[in-house]
Amino acid sequence: MTRLIVAAGGGGDAVAAAMLHAALYGDEDQAVILTYAWDRLLVDPVPGPRRPSDFTGLELLTQSVWSVPAEALPIAPAGSTLPRLAAELPHTFALIDPQHGTEGITRQLEELVSHLEPTSIDLLDVGGDILARGDEPTLKSPLADALTLAACCQVNAPIRLLVAGPGLDGELPISQVHGLLGPLVHTFTAKDAEPVSSILEWHPSEATGMLAATARGVRGVCEVRDAGLPIPLTDDGPTVHEVDLDDALSRNELARAILSTTTLDEAETHSREICGYSEIDYERNKAAWLKDQQAEKLDPDTVLCQLDQFENEAKSRGVTHTTFRHLTEVLNLNGSQREELRQLLITSRPSQHAAPLWHF
Question: Taking the CB of the first residue and of the last residue of the chain, which one, N or C, has fewer CB atoms within 10 A?
Answer without folding.
Answer: N
